[in-house]
Structures are given as C-alpha cells and as structure tokens.
Amino acid sequence: MKSTSNTFFSTRSSIKYPRSLCALAVATGLAGLPAMAQEQSAAADKKGLERIEVTARKTVESLQEVPISVTSIGGLELDEKGIAVLTEIQQFSPNTTLQNSRGTNSTLTAFIRGVGQQDPLWGYEPGVGIYIDDVYVARPQGAVIDLLDVSRIEVLRGPQGTLYGKNTIGGAIKYVTKPMSGDAEMNVQGTIGSYSQRDVKVTGQYPIIEDRLFVGFGYANLNRDGFGEYLISALDNQDMENYNKDLTAARLTLEFTPSDDVFFRLSWDKTTDDSNAKGGYRLLPSLLTNAPVPDSVFDSYTSLPTENKVELEGISLTANWDITDEFSLKYIGSRRESYSPTNIDFDNTPLDIFDVPAVYDDNNTTHEIQLNYRGDGMSMVGGVYAYDGESCGQFEAILGFLGRAAFGTPGLTREVSGCNNSKSTAAYVQGSFDLTAALSLTLGARYTNEEKEADVNNGLVFAAVYPQSGWVPGYVRPDGDLVPQVLGEDTNNDGILDAPKTKSWSRFTPRVGLEYQANPDLMFFASYSQGFKSGTFNPRATVNEPAADPEIVDSIEVGMKSDWSDNLRVNLTYFSLDHKDRQYIGVIPSDDASVLNQYLANVAATSAKGIEAEVTYVATDNLTFDIALGTFDSKIEENNAVPPLLGISNTPDYTMNFAANYVLESSVGDFVINANYYYRDDYRLFEDSDLLQEKGYGMLNMSVSWQHEEGHWYASLHGKNLTDKEYLVGGYNFVGDNGDGTYSPGLGGDNTLIGYYGDPRTVSLTLGYRF
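Below the sequence we write its predicted structure tokens.
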C-alpha cells in the first residue's frame, strides 16, 4: 500500500479473477427475457437514433422532451452489457456514485452531484431517493434490490422535491418494470464464472384468463466464493470466505386487466442475502496484535462471527384507471420490511479492539393517489402522498481490549439502541403550459408535513455485550435495560425519560422552468428547483439534544436536448447548487463558557457547479458510440462542523465513460459486442478527513452476447475490470494523523484505518433457453 503523509492510495494488483453479482443480477436475470428476445432479434435492424421513453415526470415521455438531466438504461442494454449489480450504473451516468457500503453486499451508498448520505445508521436519511415502480425504498440496507421484468433504470440528477418529495436533494434512481406480455413463457438461465460463480435463475409467466389475468414468477440462487478470506478468526467453525456471495430471491406478480381502461398489479418479493460479513483491509499495521497487513486487499482478520444476513420483503399494489383520453387516475400502495443482523469488525484484527455487532429493523407503508392530465397545450400531474415508517436498531461498540487494559474489567461496551420513526404527508402538482408554439412554462409545487419521533438509549457496560443471546457461542444477554435512555420526553415531569421525543416540520418545495423548442430536434431549457432532506434526531445521542432541521438544496439548470441528425444525439446540462443547513456534529452555544455541547445540528453549507454531457453517435447501422462526461467543482461556504469539513465525499471532479456497441450479423444469429472504458478522478471517502482517498482510475469492460436466430437459445460472455484495478469504495478512519507520516492510536487504542474495495477482474459465461 503506497502512502503519502496524508493520503492512502490503492496500488496492489489482485491475484485471483472473481465476479461480483449483487442483487441487480436478479433484476437482469429475472427480467422479462422472452419479451427482451424480440428486442434483441431486432438489434441488427436499428436505424439511426432510438426513441427512449422515460417516466421521470411521472408520465410517459420521450427522453428528448424531458427538461431535466436524466440517464435511462433499458433492459436490453442491461442484458447486453451484463450489468449485474446496481453500482455498475454509475459508469453510465455523469456525476453519479453508486457503491456498496461497508459490511454487506446489499447496503447502498449513493451520491449524485456531491449530495447523498454515507452513514447507513437508522435515523439518518438518504440524499438520493430509490424507487421501484414509484415505490420509495426508505433505507440503504437492501437498496440493491431484486426485480422482475426490468424495463429500464432511470437516474434523475438534481433535486426532485416537487414530484418525488423529501430525500431526493441529490436526485432519484428509478427501477421501472415491464407489464407482462400475456403469453405463457418460461426462461431458464445458468451462469458460471470467476471465483466459482454459479447462478441459476428461473422466470416465467402464465395467463390464467386470456388477455385479462396473468401471473408472473421468478426465482434466483446466486453464489460465488470470496475474493479473499479471513486469515485468522478468533472463533472456531467460521466460514472464512471474505467478499463471497450467497443470495436467494423470489418474486410473484399478479396482473389483472378487467377492461381496456383499468389495470391492477399486485407484486410480492423477498430477498435473503446470507453472504458473509465483509472484512476490511488494514492500511496500517496493528499496534496491539501481531497480525501483519495482508497481502491482498480482500483478506482480513476478525474476532466476530463471519455470518451476516440481510432480509427484505415487500408487497405493492398499483391500480390505474384511464378515465378519458386526457385523464388517468393511479393508486400506488406498498409495505416493505427489512431485518439485518450484521457483524462489522472495525479494527479487523482477531482481538476485540473495536467490534460492532448490530441489528437493523425497518418497516414502512406508503400510499399515493395520482391524477394525470394531458391535453392540447398543457399537461399536468398532481397527487397526495402518505408515508409511515419505523426505523429501529441497536449496535454495540465493543472495546474489550481497552476495558481489560484500562479498567481491569471483563470488557467495555458502548451500547446504543433506539428508533427514529417518521410520518409524512404531502400534496403536489406540476404542469407544463405552452406559451407559444415553441415556448413552454413548467410550474410545480409540493407541500410536505412531516413528524419525527425518536428515542435513544446510550451508555457504557463494563463487559463484552452483544445484541442477542447466542450471538457468539455460549453468550447469554442479561435481562433488562443495560444502558439508560438519553433522548426522549419526560411526560410525567419526574426526571425519567418515558416517551419518544417528537418534532415536526413543514416545507414548500417549488419548481419553475422554461423550455424552448427551436425545432423538432432541438430543445433548450432552464429551471430552478428545490428539495429537502428530512430533519432528524441524532441516533447516537449522548444527551437529550434537540433535532436537526432539514437540509435544503436550491438548484439551477440550463441545458440542451438535441438530435443533430439521424445519427447524432447531444444532451448537455450546466448546473449549480447551494446545499444549506447540512447536518453534522457541531458545537451548540451554552451560557456556561466551560461547557462544550456537541450535538447533531445544521452547521455546514456547500455549493457546487458542473457540466453533464451525454453523446450518442450511430456511426453505421451496426456500430454505435456513447460518451458520458461529468465535471464537478465544489466549495465549502459554511464550516462549523466538528471536526471541520475538508471537501465533498464520494464525488470526483471528473467522470467519463466511453462505450462502443457493434452488432455482428451471422447465419447462426446475431452477436452484440460491447466495450466501455470508465474513468473516475480522485475522490475522498470522508468529508472530514484526507486519510482515505482514492486516486483517479480507469476500468475496462467487454461483453459479447449471442442469440440464436430462432430466439430460444442465447449466451453471453462478460469481462469486468479487465485491467484489474483496485479502488476504494468504503472505509473506517479511527486514527490520528500527526502530520509527519506517523499516526496516533484512535478509539480502541489501535491504528484503525480500514479500506473496502470494489470488485476485481471477473469473467462469466451465461447460457439460457426461452420456452
């Protein structure tokens, strides 16, 4: 590991050749490949630029008609490129970061234009909204979710506060699924690849009542050995694989069309990810153990169980009524639950220096009623929305070595538990109005009322404490509350906190825009929009502190959507944003000058500007090139955080992707060859530290897909990260930087500077048959 005085960069080369396949693999594998077969059979017949339809404004429109910066990747493209994990989408969307968080395969870290949320702890809200058919996925745990019949994935950049509401201040990512074709179909697919990848996927649909009632189903079992291993574990009989894959997913969908004007869809899905907990790579030698820095960035050590689990289950109902040719009424309702007992060894040694076993338990219910109108000279969408979510959890920060060395106790644990629940209601409307034949005006507004309630228990236990009995062999958790409640309400005025603390906010978020259609193939647009991220209580509170207010982002965009000819498309956007009232730990003034009150508060502000360009050039009927370029320039405007901010995290100054697609026609079927080179400039992982940074790196991917001319047999070969680049996607920083190339121990008494890495070089082969 190469280092400078303040920065660690990844420079090693991997030895193995693995394949990562997170839950979006099921999205592609469980996708409606029979319907996709028709698209593939026509791949060689494409002439010029394709019309791409999106629902970014909650109505079906051409991508070239939508006056916002949006990237859409269709199901056919996902299949041809072998995009099997959500994080790969970042390559094709400028100024977008989608990465696996620390500890599990299924927890997502999402940033768009420098706005997101790194900490997945309950209570913290995301800055990028994730949606499945307009159903909001509230928590990052399991946000890489499995889907059936993926039509496309849309990435909407910039605040989406009018149509999508809270927690979309960076943007929104939408999974859009396909309606069933109505025919009896089945698809069986198997994949083998690096690191003993072995996947099986079975999907299908069957008409119960012809043209009226259909049922769809899907099942996937995804397995892969680890990229590395736990070299030492303090516990016996542990699975020693690190960065492995063990996931099953199932989905059922029922669609009913009682008349040509009415449509119902009832969907159920469940995902269980039993992959091992991820162990991090020690960037510095341990001061307290003899375990050396591993040779591979995918190797680790642990004193916790290696087992881990992320369970997700959801049900949703969509009903649509086309009242007239101009009006349609839609209802979307859902309930989702997730449960995740997880083991994260922060120090990554076989000693309990800084261990964090935790449990996350979330559920939420949503309802939305939406009215759409499209007529001559104007279109409008409006609705009402309700969200009720419970987000709870518990973690133990076990500092066992410190407890034994400093206090002579069996251990030392800081236990934190509690809930941070939310109820939110909103009403919104957005319309576009033709002022002249070429000029149109967009006006939108949303009013949101939100109430949060929270309680936090926080305190020290002079023993090694785990969330549940049996967490480690022989452990029995003591009865009763081990630590006091420190955040809540004293309803009886008896000095005892006995109820959740509450706070409510209301917010009006507007949007205004102008669009000028210079000719049928050239549109200019300018807009102002605002979004907000929910206020919240500190989930790690140590005192009965007040809530932090919402974060606000104001954004201006100026752009162009253009098809310069039948074979050249150029879409450009310039943006600037002001991100105010950012939530960080800060110092709250006190009447007593000797008191240092550190609370979660709105203590920082930043600004940013940049350019996003997406270019498609159809060189011939068989050869297409795509370029996606993003630039990002940020500035800290207010900096009262403790420690102070040093810059924006998870966002490079430049992102670039160059892709080529070639269709080779043959007598045995068409071959589609895809290649892309993706580059990310330097970026830091944490806003308050320069110790974990990643140098700019490039990644090369190639794919070859084939389908027999009769459409039944198909195969694909995919190579990812072919140059075997190592790159940081997460980490932990509990070490002091002395500024001279030396470091001082942090929490737990060790040099805890840990990195988590993206997938190394992988190769996979898929073979499938459609009935």
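The first strand starts at residue 2 and ends at 3.
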